[in-house]
Every structure is written in C-alpha cells, then in structure tokens.
Amino acid sequence: MGLWLPAIFLAGLLFSFLLAFHNPTPHHIEVAVAAPPATTAQLQSQLDTAVPGGFTLQPVDTAAEARSAVLNHDAVAAFVPAPHHPQLYGAKADGAAMESIIREVFTSAAQKPGATLAFHELVSTRPGDSLGISPLYLLMACTLPAYFLVVAMQRAVGFSRRAHVATMVGGGAVAALACYLTGAYGMDAIPQHPLALLYLFLLTQAVSLTSYGFVPFLGPFFPGAAVTLFVLLGVPSSGGTVPIDLLNGFFRFLHPVLPMGNAADALRLVDYFDGRQLGRPTAVLCAWIATGAALIVLGYLKQLRQLVREAQAGMTGYVPAPPPEDPTVELPEPVALPPHRHHFGEQLPILTGRVSGLAGEPLSATITVTDPHGRQLVRTHTDQNGEYAATGFHDGFAIVVAGAPGRQPAASRLLLSPATPVNQDFILTPAQQAVPGYTSSHRATMISHDRGAAGRTL
To answer: How many CB atoms lie within 10 A of CB 390?
Structure first.
C-alpha cells in the first residue's frame, strides 16, 4: 500500500517532466509582421517549411504597431522585413529559450541573401533573473509548503476544521510574504509590487484549500491527487522553465487551467507588461480557491450525515475512515498520554477522565478504547489520582471500558473528535455489592462531562 505514492512520483517524473522538457519545439508562436499581405503570406510559407506549425504571423500596418504588439503582450516577437536590413524584435521576458529559438529560425528561414538581420530586445528580464526562470522556484516555494501544511494538519488532532483552515490561511500568508521579500528585495527576481505578493498568496490558498478539500473524499489517496495536480503536472505546464509555446499540446492545455501556470503568468504580466491581461489568471486562481472551499463544506456535510446515520443505527456498520497517508509525515495513531504533563508542541488529549469508587476514592483501573467492532485502539492505566488520558483518535464512535480488580466494569459509547476533547468519568461499584436505587441495568455507572457538542454519551 505504501508504494503507490513513490510509483506516482516515478511515473510523473518520467512521463510528465521528461515528456514536457526533452524536446522543446515551437507551437503557433505569434509574431507580428509589418509587411503587405503577400509578403506576410510568403514568409508564413517559408516558416511552415522550416518549422511546420511553429509560427503564426499577425499582419500589422507599421513597424511601430509591430513593436507595440510585443510590448502589449499581444505577440511574442515582431518582424519588419526589409531588402537589406530586416528587423526582429523580441521579449526575453517571455522566456530566454523562446527568444533564442525565434532568433535562430528567423535568421535561417526569413533572412534573404545579402541581408543582415538586426535583433532588438524590447522586454528584457530583471538583473536578478537573467534566464527568466527564478519565479518558478518562488512558486514552488509557495506550492510545496502549502501542500505539506495540509498533511501536517492531519496530525493536528486538537484542532477543529475551522482552526485547520485558519492555520492554512496564516501559513500561506507567511510563505507568500517570505517568497515575496526574498524574490523582490533580496534577489530582484520579481517586481516590488503588492500584486506580486497577492498572487503568491492566492497560489498558496489554491493549493492548500483544494488539497484539504480532497481529504474527506479521497482519504489515504489525497496526497497522490494533490502531488499529481500541483507538482507533477503543475510544474511542467507552468511555463516557468520552458515557455509554454514550446511544450506539447497536453501541457499547453493544462497551462491556463492549473494554479501554478496562472500564478506564473500573473507575475510575468505584473512585472513586464504593466499588469495587462490579468483577468484570466485572477479568475482561475480564485476558482481553485472557491473549489477548495466548496470541497471543505461538502466534506463536512458528508461527515455529519455519516455520523448522524451511525448514531441512529447504533453500533452497526461504522468503521472509522483511515487517516491520509504520506511517506514524509508520521500521522497520528491512538496513544495514551500522562493525564497532566502536556508540553508545548505535544499532542493534546482528546479523551480524559477519572475512575473512582462510590466514595470518590481514586481507583487503579485499566482503560480500554475500542472501535464499534471491538478492535482495540488504545489501552492504558489510571495514575495515582485515578485519572487517564489518550489522544490520536479520528472522528467517529468508540467504546471506552473501565475495569478494576474487584469492581464491576463500566463502559460508555462516545463520539470522539479531534476538534472537541471529551471528559468521561467512571464510578465503579464493588463486584458483589448492590447499590441502593440501582437496578441491574445500572451496574456500570457512567458520568459524562462533555466539553463540547461533539462529545456525548449515547
């Protein structure tokens, strides 16, 4: 079972990264051409012969319009043919590899004999990002912590769902701010613009909220879905390493859909093109965040309906869902805790209580917690004060049994939840003693002191 995630990484690296990057080829790169229609058509034919389907020419009236198309991000390059001094205009900000290929193709295919092609850089990259790929690493620095924070939240057994979400929002803000300050002020790799910080933050929330929303529906398989979407497919299709117009059709299709590609586009547009055409990246990132929020709500409703059904059905048919698995993080299991020694950073108890006799004296008792089918989850003993504590339980019903030598055992069926600790006290009567006012059905006396609506004796 634990080998499926390494298998996903192996397949992803072979058939995603390697497939995307091994042979970059131009695909319909838009180039503005300031030439008559006949000249443009002839040039299109020459380019189709050299690189079939590699370039799409956009005819414009003047050289100024051709340059404006590049500056406005309406075209990747511009070409102004002339008998002796043809002019080629590029934007390294669209990708150094892209510019290199355009210069090579136009030099060999569009330059006439005896003419010298002059190249002009219109939109250069930042001094701290000469190759134009630094933003990719900042985007990965936002994406991976956002995912691992979701995995860590599966261990935060004392947190409610609301606290989980608040932690992911706060953690995303910290990660985005750290990436922004490092990239903008430390390395001059991204613009010192508040919109850059905003889009880094939106990326963290798109990844973390959607990944967290997967958990109730995919269970132990949510890491595979999240890693595949946001890393194995997100990185190659982002255009951060190889410009998107040099990738094959599958990754070009994914680019405007996945969060990382849209965040990369947003940073590029803010930095080099005065924030033009930000509508699509903004809408897509917000759509991913809305999808994650909707999945979280639906997961809560799904869990609530399941618990209500099980409460109505008694003890039959309920098996707690297995925790999500991730090979990088050890997820919680039910364990006993000292009743009072809880240090900062340690797991907080979910189940606590005290075992005493009729006179209130503490008893040395054994506490056994099982699931509704009798599978033992944890077994512990009370301390000198008759108290016990345990944690690591997932949402669901459990049977808590207290037993002591010479005493009638007591049992209670509880709804345990990491979000709401439950206190369950037991009073154990002597094994052969009848208690006035008690019938045989009251031999096990339970006193439940719930600390929230989620914990109750049924």
So the answer is: 25
DSSP 84: S
Q: Which of 346, 199, 347 is CA-nearest to residue 279?
A: 199
| CA 91/CA 76 separation, integer angstroms | 7
Give the pLDDT score at 310: 60
CA distance 208 to 325: 16
Element at 410 (helix H, strand E):
strand 410-416
The radius of gyration of the chain from alpha carbons, rounded to an integer in Å, stands at 32
Q: What is the pLDDT of residues 388-403, one digit of tens each?
A: 999 888 788 899 999 9
Decide the pairing of beta strands 335-336 and 351-356.
unpaired
How many angstroms from the chain centroid is the CA of residue 69? 36
Backbone torsions φ then ψ of 142, nearest 5 degrees? -90, -40
Give the mean model confidence (pLDDT) for residues 105-116.
76
Cβ(152)–Cβ(92) below 8 Å: no
Work out the pLDDT band at 233, boundaries 50, 70, 90: very high
CA 207-197-144 angle, to 5 degrees, is 30
Contacts of residue 346, defined as CB under 8 A and 6 or more positions apart, other chains included, come to none
Question: Residue 380: is its pLDDT beyond 50?
Answer: yes
Closest to 204 measured CA to CA, from 234, 244, 232, 174: 174
Q: What is the pLDDT of residues 21-32, one digit of tens each?
A: 888 899 999 999
In the three-class reduction of DSSP (H, G, I as helix; E, B as strand; rest coil), residue 112 is classed as: coil
**Cα dihedral 130, 135, 138, 140 sign:** negative
Which helix or strand (DSSP H or E) is residue 58 part of? strand 55-60
What DSSP letter does each residue of 4-59 carry, written as one string? Answer: HHHHHHHHHIIIIIHHHHSS----SEEEEEES-HHHHHHHHHHHHHHSTT-EEEEE
Please answer whether residues 118 and 88 qualify as being in contact, where contact means their C-beta atoms are separated by less than 8 angstroms.
yes
How far apart CA 256 and CA 265 sit, in angstroms, is: 9
What is the amino acid identity at position 386? G
Pairing of β 118-121 and β 55-60: unpaired
Q: How far, in Å, are 318, 360, 383, 398, 452 from residue 449 at the CA level? A: 24, 16, 19, 16, 9
The 10s digit of each residue's pLDDT in 301-342 is 988 887 777 666 554 434 444 444 444 444 457 888 888 765
Neighbouring C-beta atoms of residue 61, cutoff 10 Å: 10
Please tell me which residue, 412 or 458, carries the higher pLDDT value.
412
Q: Reading across the β-sheet that carries 366-370, which strands appear in turn? A: 376-381, 366-370, 396-403, 410-416
First to last CA, the chain: 35
